Queue: 4 jobs
Job 1
Amino acid sequence: MMRSLYSGVAGLKTHQTKMDVIGNNIANVNTTAFKSSSITFSELMSQTTQRASGPNATTGTGGVNARQIGLGVKSGAININIEGQGSAQSTGNPFDIMITGDNFFVVNNGVENLFTRDGSFYVDGGGNLAMTSTGYNVMGWGVDEATGKIKQDSVAALRIMSTANMTYPPEATSKAYMAGILDKNDTDVTSANGKVVNLNFFDALGYSYTARFVFRQSDDRNQYSLELSKILDSTGAEVDISKVDVTLFGKEGSMQIKSGKVSFDTTNYKWDGKELKDGSGTVLANLDDIFKAGGNGELNTLSDKGANLQTATVQEQLDAIAKAYGYEGSTDEFLSLLYQPLDNTGKADGDALSVQMLLFNRIADTAGTATGAQTSIPVPAADAKQGDPFSFETVGRKFDGTSVAFDGKTGYFAGINGQATVSTVTLELSKLGGNFSDIEIDFSEISMFDNKGTSTLGATSGDADGIGMGRRLGDMIGVSIQQNGMIYASYDNGMTKLLGQIATAAFANASGLEKQGENLYSATLNSGEFDGIGVDVTANGGKMSTGQLEMSNVDLSAEFTEMITTQRGFQANSRIITVSDTLLEELTNLKR
C-alpha cells in the first residue's frame, strides 16, 4: 500500500517536470531561433517478489514468470528539437541573418567560442560584427591580402568597418577603347577642326582628366589622322604638355594627304613676309618675335611677348597670322599645313614644308633656291613668279599622332599607321611625370558605316571587360552579405571589396550541445568538438539569408495537446495518492 503512495508521488513529480518543459516551450514561442524541447518517461524500478522459474520435465510442471511490482516513473530524457528549422521572419535589417540548414554561428565572449542560431547582429563602435543581445563578436575568416580571397584559418572577430575598409583606393587608368561609327559625311568629320572625341581618365591619386582627341579626314576618305589635341583637368584647366619634347600619342611628324588652297585676306591685312598689319597699319605680328633666333623653326614661349611687339604674346601673333589666312580659331591646323616646293618646271623639289617652316624660312632669307623653288611664305613682289602671291596650294598637313585606316569595302577598322594587324596605340602620359600612367587605347571596334551623317564614335576608359578603367577614391556606401556568408562593401566609385566571411560550426550531434542562456550553446563531449576553424555554410547545403531572422520552432498546437495529456496524467496520479490514503484510513479503522 505504501508502494502505491510513492508511485503516485513519483508520477506527480514526473508530470510536473513535463509541465515545466511545456511551459518553457510556450514561454519561448516568440524567442528568436529558440528550439523546443520534449520529455520522455521511463519506469523507475520494479520490486521482484518472485523470480521466474523454468519448466520441470521430471515433475511435469511448467515454468512460472517472475512476479514484479513497479515502483513509479521517472524522466527518461529531455530532447531538444535542435534541427527543426524555424520559420523566417522578415526584418529588413541587412545585418539580420538566418541560417537555413543545421549549422550554427560562432560567437566569442572574449574567453571562449559559443554557438547560436540567433542571427540578430549589428556593427559595434569598433567596427566589429556583434550579437545585438550580448555584444559577443561574430567570428569568421579574413581576406588574404596577397590573393584577395578568403583565408579559411582559425576564426577571428570580423572587423568589417575598419578605417582601411571605409574607403577604396584610387587607381590610374591603364586601358581604354574607342567604339562606334565615324560617318565620313558627318560635317564635324569633314570640317577643318575635325571630329572631337573625349576620353575621361584618372591618375594614380584618383584625380580625373579629359584627353581630347581629334579625327581629321584626308583626301583618301578611308584614312583619318588622329591627334591628341589637349588634356584638361577636372576644373577645365589645360595641362601643359608642351614641356615634353616628343609626342605623347602616336608618331611625331606624321603626314596626311589633304590638298587645298590657302588665301591671304588682302582686304583687311597687309603682309610683307615679316610684319603683319591690319587695315589701319597697326602691326599685329612680327616673325622675329615668334621664332627662336638660330633655331630650326622652333617657336618662342607662346605666352611671352616679343621684343618688337610687346603688346601681344607669341600665341596672339600666330593667331593673327592664321586669321589673316582664313584659319581663325585653328592656328595649329594652319601651321601644320604642308606645301610642296616646285621647281621652274613644276616638279616637286625637295620635301614638303609646313607653313610654320615657310614662315621661319622667310626671316631666314631662304625665299628661293637655285632651282627657283619657293621655300618660304609667299609675299608680293619677291614672289610675283607664283602668279597669285597671296595664295598657295597645300598637299597635306603635318601632325603628331597616328593614322587610322578603314576598309573601303566593308567599313570596318583596318589598322593603324599602315599596319593592318595593329589595333592599339599607347597614350604615353608617363612622360608628363607626376602621377600619370600610360593608357593603351584599342581602336578595333570603330567602323565607318553610313549613319545618315551622324557619328556615334566615343571613347571609354577600361577594356571591354572593364579592366584598367581606373577610378577615384571611393567612400563606402553599403555592405551586403552573400548566401555563403561572404561580406562585401560597395563604394561610390563603383567598386566592391571582399571584407571577410562569416564562419559556421557543424556538429556530429547538435542535440548534444548544452544551452548557456541568451540563445547560446556550448560544445560538450557528446556533441563533438569545434575545431576552431569552422565550415562554409554552403558546404552542407545550407545558406544564409539577410534581412530575416529564424523564429522559434515551438508548435503551440502540439504543446497545448501535450499540456492536456500532462494535466490528465497528473490528475490520475493524484487519485492514486487519494485512494491509497483512503485504504490506509480503512486499515487504521479496523481497531476502534
Job 2
Amino acid sequence: MATKEQLQKKITPLDGKDYGAYQALIGSYDFDQFTLVIEQIPKDPFAPPHTGIYRVQFPLVDTVIDAGMIDSKTADIACRDFYARQFFFHSHNMAGKRRGPGYSGIITINEPGQAILERSSVLIHDQTLEVRCFVGLPASGRKIKAKLAIKMLLEELPDIVRLSLHRDHTDANQLLSHIHTAIDAEYLRATLPAMGLLAFIADGAMLPRESGTSDRPLVSDSIVPFKTPASLKTDIDLPYAGTITGMGIPQGITLLAGGGYHGKSTLLQAIEMGVYNHIVGDGREQCISLSEAIKIRSYSGRHVVKTDISPFIRNLPFGADTRAFSTENASGSTSQASNIIEAMEMGAQVLLMDEDTCATNFMIRDMYMQKLVKKSDEPITSYIDKVRQLYVENNISTILALGGVGDYFEVADRVIQMINYEPQDVSAQARDIIHSYPTNRIREDVDYPIQPRARIPVAASIDPISEYKKLRLYTTEVHSLHLGRNKIDLTDLEQLIELSQTKAIGYAMLYARQYMDGTGTMKQVIDRVMADIEENGLDILSEKISGHFAQFRAFELAFAMNRMRSFSVDQVQ
C-alpha cells in the first residue's frame, strides 16, 4: 500500500495536464489514522458525483462505537446514519462549495434528510468504519489544479475524517440518543398491530414543517404541541423513552376534518411520514405509522398498464376494458383508481388521502348529481361507496383529510376535527348530524367485489439502454428518474423523500429483472428483491461499489415501475 506522501508525489507533476490524468491516482493509501481507497475517478470535472468512488476506512477502535451499541439491525442502521450526518456536516462546512467547473473542489456524501435510513455511504465492518464519499478533484477548465488537489486530499479530507469519526470529536451520548430514538420508533411500529392501531402521534409532538417543499421542522414560538383528545389517548411503554402518551388511530375509517389552515393536512402528513424513523429534534420522533401505509392521490397524465380498476371504474364509452386498463395519459379519476389498485397489489394496509389532491369525481357523487346523472351513464363508482367494502373485505383502512365533504360522516368510524391545531374527537357529533340531516345518497355498486387481478412484469420492458445505445440510469431530483429512454415522473410518490432512495430504486428496477421469469407476480418479484437487500445490504444492487443508495420500500419500487412508460405486464387470468 502506498503512503500519503507517495500520493502527493503522484499529484504534483499532474498540474496543468488534462483532467483524465487524475486516473493515475487510483489505488490505496495509508494516511496513518485511516486508509483511503480511490476506486474510481471521473474523467471529466462535470461528471456527476456517483461516478467517483472514494472509500475512507477508519479503525473501529478509534471510534466511540462498541459492540453493545449495534447489537441489532435497527441500531446498526441508526449508528451508520449518525456518522453519515457527521461526515456530511463537516465536509459541507469545510469543502462544500465548488472551486472550479462542474463539481471541482467538493468533498461530500449524499445529504441525509429527516429520516434515519439504511445508507450505503457508511458501513461498519469487523474492524473498520467505512465512509464512501465523493471528492471532486479540482480543475481550471479541464486542466488539473495540483496544489488544490493536494490541499483537498492531504489536508481537508483528513480533517473531515478526524472531526467526523474519531472518538475525541464524537459525542457518545448524542450517538446513543440517535440509536435509542430509532429503536424506540421501531418498537412502537411493531407494537401497533397488536393494539389494533394504524398510527400513533405522541403528545408534545411538533408537526408543522418549514414549508410545503421542506421536511425540516418549522422553528417558531407559535407552534402548538400535539395534544391528544381523551377518547383516543393511548399509553405505550418504550425500551428507552419509557411510558409515553399520545393519540392512537384505530383500524377502520378515520376522517381528519376541520377548517382551512387548522392543521388537518399537517396531521395527515405526519402520519404519512410516520413510515420512517426520525432523527432527534425532528419533532416527530414518536409519530409512527404502519410501514404499509400508502399516500394515495390523483395525478393526471401518468402511465398505467393492464391494471384492474373495474372495482371503481367500469362501462367506459366505446367498451374499453377496465379489468386490464392501460393508458399513457390517465385522468384524475383513473390515476387515483390505479394508485389504489397498485397499492393493494403490493399489500397496503392503510390508504392515506387528502381531499386537496384527490379527484373530486372519484371521491364523491352527491345526491343531486345522482338524480341528474343515472348510474348507468356514470362509469365511476365513488370512493365513498367502496371505502367500507375495502375495509370489510380486504382489511384495508382509510385515513382521509377533508373539509368540504360531510357525506363521509356516514361511512366513518371516527371523525377527528382539528381546531387551532388541536385534535378533537367529534365522532358523536358527526353521527348526530347524519341522523338529523340524512344525505339521502344512494350507495352505488356495493356488490361488485374488490379483487383486482395480479400482474406479471415483463423483464424486457425495463431497458436501460438509451437512444444512443448506451446505458442511461441517473437522477438529479428526488421525484424524477432517467432510465434508458424513459424519464419516469415520480411526483405523486409523496413518501419518497431522499435522492439516495430514488437512485437505489433505479438500480433495483434493473436488479429485479432476474426474477421476472414470466411466472412471478409483481409482488413476488419485488419481495425477492427486498429479501436480497435485507440479507445482503444495498450493495447487492450494483456491481460497482456505491455510496449513493438509501433504503426504500417495496411500494415505491413497484410504483416507479408502474410509471415507466415502457413497462409492460401480463395479467394472471
Job 3
Amino acid sequence: MTKLVEVRDLSVAFGDTTVVQGINFDIDAGETVALVGESGSGKTVTALSIPQLLPYPHASHPTGSIRLDGEEMVGAGGTKLLAMRGSVVSMIFQEPMTSLNPLHKIGKQVGEMLVLDGNLTRSRATARVHELFDLVGLDESVRIGAYPHELSGGQRQRVMIAMALAQEPKLLIADEPTTALDVTIQKQILKLLRDLQNHLNMALLLISHNLTVVRSLAQRICVMTHGEIVEQNTSRKIFKAPGHAYTRHLLGAEFMDLPPAANPDAPLIAQVENLTVRYALGRHWFGKQRFLDAVSGVSLRIREGHTVGIVGESGSGKTTLGMALLRMIPSEGRIVVIGRELHTLSKKQMKPLRRDLQIVFQDPYGSLSPRMTVGKIVGEGLRIHSGDLPIAQRDQRVADALIEVGLEEDMMNRYPHEFSGGERQRISIARALVVKPKLIVMDEPTSALDVSVQAQIVELLREVQRRYNLVYLFISHDLKVVRALAHDLVVMHEGSVVEQGDAGEIFDSPKHAYTRTLMDAAFMDEL
C-alpha cells in the first residue's frame, strides 16, 4: 500500500520542555491508525504536527520529518500549508460546541471553506453543503440555517465531520471525536466514520483514550506515554498480547472488577416515590399551559452501603433525578432521606441536612473556584456546617480528607489549575467527604478521565464506601464504570424508568429493548 503519511524522528518542545520526542510511524492510504495513551502523553501534539497546527510561538517548530502525500510538512511555507489543509488533511476536534462559531449558522460555517477555496460559487457551495449533510446522515430536520446551540451533541459532531470532509481529504485526523457523547450516539458516529472512510478511501488517524473505540475502528495502534511511542502493532496483536508494560497497564485499567457485595438487607437510607420534575414550556395560542416532564413517576429505594447506578442517554432525566433527590430543584412526589420527609421541608429547614447530602459534579475544573485554594475549597462545608470548630481542627480535618483521597497535606495552599483532571476530581470527592455525609450523588464523575485514572477513582470510591458505609447515586453513560461500582441499576429513557433491579442481573440479561441497545453500544466489539 502507498504510504500517505511518513513521520520520522519527530520532536516538539514547549519552551524548554520536550513534549514529543523521537516519534516514528506511517499511515497507509485508506488505513486507520490510532494514537492511544493518557492525557499529556503527546497524542494531540503529534497529530497537530502533521498539518502544522501547533500554537506558535508557544511551541517551538517541530524537528524531524513529516511527509504527507509526498510533501514535506516540517518547515513548509504558508502557501503550501494552505493548499494541503482541507484538501489533503483535515481534522475533527474533541468538543464540537467550542469548535463551531456560536454566532454563525451551521450551513454558512460548512460552506465558508468551499467558497474561500475559490472553486465554488456561493449557490454551488450551498448545494454542496446539502450533499455533505446527506453524506454524514443529517436529515431534513436539521436546517442549514440552524445555529450550533440548536443541535444535539451527536448532530454537532456530524456537522464537524461534514466540514472536515468538504474537500474530500486523503487523511482525516479525529481527536477524541466521541468522548462527550452517549454510548449509542458514539456507536453511530464511529460507524459513520467507518462508512465514510470506505466510501472515500480515506486514511484515518484516531486519537483516543477509549480502548473500546480503538478496538472497533483501528487496524494499527501506536501506544504513547511521556511523549514517546513505546509500542506499535496491529490492533489484534496489541489487545491479544501487549508487549510493553505500559500497554498492559492501560488494558488492565479498562477491565475493572465487579463491585464487592453489599448487604441486601441493609437499612434504607433513601426512598423516592412517584417523583416528577416538570418544566413549563409556555402556552398554546388559546392559553393552555404546556409542560415537559423531565422526570416522570420515578420510584426507587436506596440502602446503606449500596451504589445505585443511573444510566441512560443525554436528556433521559438522570441528572434531573439526582438534583431532585437532593432538593436542588423543585419536584413533585415523596422523598424520604435518613427518615426525614424532604418534600415537606422549606429551604431553611433543609440547610442542616445538607451536610448529609453531598454531590460530586462531572467537570471538577468548572465546579472548583479558581480563586480559592484547595484548603478553602475542601473546608468550605466545615465552615458552613461546623462553624464553631476551631480553625486548627478544621484545617486538620481538611488535611485528613485530602490524604484519604490519595492527595498530600501540602497541597492545601495550591489552586485547582495546578492539578491534573484526576487530582481535581479527588479534590471534589474530598470536599464531599470532609463533612461525613450519608449519601453522595456522583454526576458523571469519570466521563472526561483517562481509563487508568478512572480505575483509580473507582477504587477510591469503593474504599471510601467500605470505610464509611456510604450511599452513592452514580449517574453515568459509561456503563463499564457503572458495572464496576453499582449494586443496583436504574435505566432511564425520556424521563421514565424502563428497567431497574440488581445491577449484575441487568448487565447479564437485560430485559428491555432500550437497555439491550445501551449494552450493545457500550460493549461493542465491532461496528
Job 4
Amino acid sequence: MKIFRLFVLLSFIFIFSCSDKGQFNILNQGNTISFSGTPNSSYDRSIFSFSDQGAWFSYSFPDTNSQVLGFSGPFLMTQENGAWISKCLSKLQIIDKQGKNILDSEIKNIVQNSYLSHLEQIVSVDKIEIKQELFFESSGTAIIQTKIKNITDKELIFNPVFSGKIINKFIHLNSKNNTISIHSEKSNVTGYLSFPHANIDSIILCDTSYLLKLNQIELKSGKSTIIYTKQSFSFQDNLYSEISNINYNDLLKKRINEKNQQLNDVISRIPLKWRNEAYLNLVSKCILTLQNNWRSAAEGLNFEGCFPSYHYKWFHGFWAWDSWKHAVALVHFNSGLAKNQIRAMYDFQESNGFIPDCVYRDTSIEANNYRNTKAPLSGWAIWKVYEETGDAAFLAEMYPKLNKYHEWWYAERDHDKDGICEYGSTDGTLIAAKWESGMDNAIRFDDSDILKNSDQAFSLNQESVDLNAYLYAEKIYMNKIAIALGFEKDQVKFESDALKLKTKIQQQFWDNESGWFYDTDINGEEFIKIMGPEGWIPLWANIASKEQAEKASKTMMNTSKFLTRVPFPTVCADHPKFKPDGGYWRGPVWLDQAYFAVKALRNYGYNTEADLATKMLIENAEGVLDKGSAIRENYQPITGEGLESYNFSWSAAHYLMLLLE
C-alpha cells in the first residue's frame, strides 16, 4: 500500500509539472451548465434553469427540435416551492402578409449559449435570423431582447406575434393598459408581462392564455429590428412600473461586464497549478451554481442569501451551516451577498443567542426549524468576510451577536458543565439532536440517547470532537475579531479559553493506538470508535499536535480508509456499515468535509497530499469537469457517481475554495 501511495503521489507531481500554466480567456467560459429543455408539466424537475440578481424565477432554453422561439418558463420559485407556470410565456411568431408564420419553415441553424450574464439563442430560417438574449435587469425583472434580421434580398413585411399558455392550475392572467398581469392563488407574487417601446396592435386574452400582436413592421434587406419583452414578478403590487426610456442594450452590456469582472477577479487569484482550461471552467460553474441559488430578501426573509438548491423543492430556504459556508465562497466575487447571507440567519437569532437550523420565505409551506441549530461555523465565516473586505463596520455589527451565539452553546449544550459541549435539540427529540451535527444519520450516533439539560435544552449523551473543535476555532476567530476591534479584555479571555479547550480536545478525544480523534461518551472516558470526518476537524482547527497530525494524515491518505476514488467519505471505507450508495452521511463524500480534510492537511504542511486529494475530488467526481453537468450534493466515493440533489451550493462553494486555497 505504501508503494501504491508513493506511485500515485509521484504521478500527480509529474502531471502538474507538465500542466499548462498560461493565461485563460474567460470569455470562452460559456455553457458550463446545460439549461436546455421544455418542461413536460408544471412540476417537471428534469430541467435546470438560469437566474440572476437574486430573482425568485428562472428560465431555460426550449428543446432545439420544438420549433418554439422564446425561453422555457419561467420556473417560479414562489409557486409551491417551485413550479413552471408556462412552457414558454412569450413564444414568438413572425406572421407574413399571407398570414403564415415564417418560423414554421425549416430551421437552418440554431445556437444556444449560456453565460454568467445571460442566455442567448440564435435561430436562422429561410428569410430571417433571430437573436434572443435574456438577462436579469434586477431581482424582479427579466428582459428578453429579440433582434430580427432580414437575410433576404427583398423587403419583408410582417407582424411579430407573442403568445403564452399557463400550465399551472393556480395561475391566472389579466390585462390592463397593454400589460398582462399574472396572479397566483398560492402566493402574494404578482407577475407582469409587457413590451417596452413596442406598438401593440391587439391583445386577445383569457384566464390561462394570451395572444398579442404588434403593429406591422417593414424591414428592408439586411436590416434589423429589436423588440423587448419584460417579465417581472413582484411581492408588492405597487412596486411595478413601466419605464419606457431605459436602454436595455446598455443594461445587457453592463451585466456582461459585471460578470466578466467577477469571474476575472476570481480567476486572477487561482494558483498557477490549477490554472488550466478545465479547472477554470469549473470556477465559472461554481459561481453560476451559487448565482442560480441566489434569492433576494422577500416576505419572511429580510436579507438575501443562497438556497442549498433551487432544483430540489425542499431546499427553498436558508440553512445555518450552509449559509456560513456559502458566505466564505461568495465573498470572493460578491461581498455584499456574502455579508447578507450571514445576516439572513442572524436575523432570526433569539434573545438567548440561539440561531435556528433553517428559515423560509413562506412558512405556510414549511415552518422554520427551531428544533435545533447547526455546528458553530459563523465565526469562521464572519472573519473570512472581514479578511477579504476589510469591512470593520461589518465586524463590529456581527461581533456581539456572534459572542451571544458562542455563549449559548455553553449555556444550553454542556450537560455536565465540564466545558465540553454536546449536540442536542430544543424539543427533546433524538432526530433533531442528530440534525444539529449536520451529519443527520452518521454511524457515530447510532447508539446515542438524549439527556435533559432544561425545559428547552437537551443534549446527546456523547461529546463530539468536531463540535468542540469548531468551538475552539470560533474562540480563535473571536480573539482575532477582538484584536481588530480593540477589545483587549475579550482578547485575553478568548486566548485563555482557547488554550484550555485545545488541551482538553488533544487529551480527551485522541486515541493514540489507532491514531484518530473520536467522539466520547458524556463522561469523556470511552471512545465511540467510528472513524469519520470528525476525526480531521481538529487538524482543520489547528488543534492537533504535530505527532497527532502525522498519524491522522496517514489514515486520511490510506486507500483502504479515506483515500477512495473520490476522497474522504463520511465514514472510513473499511467500516462494516460503510454504505457508499445512498448512505447519506454513512459513506458518500460531501464537499464541505472533504474541503476541511484538504485544509487540515495543508495546515500541517502536507501540501503534496492535499494537492493529490484536490485533484481526485475534482477529476474523479462524475460530471464536475464536464460542460453542461450540474454539481451534485454528494458523490459516491468508490465510483464517483453524483448523488442526491443537483446544483448544490455548498459543493460549488467548497470546490471554489479548494481551487482558491
